[in-house]
Amino acid sequence: MTADAPDPSTWIKAQKSAQANSCVEMRRTANVEVRDTKQHGHGPTLHLNGTAFAAWVAGAKAGELDHLA
Q: Which of 11, 31, 39, 41 lies 20 to 30 Å from 20, alpha-carbon distance?
């Protein structure tokens, strides 16, 4: 790990969300874990393998999840 790279086990959220708590955050472990920021670490965590996470991101970029916003 370099000084420029974040610790992969640390929870991160999108920079565009700034201080908002209405987003999701993620971290990499053996898989990719995703959780709701509003739960402050007390809610459920979604565990995705790399293939499923890539499909989720691709779907979000393609607008497939826009109806959820």
A: 31
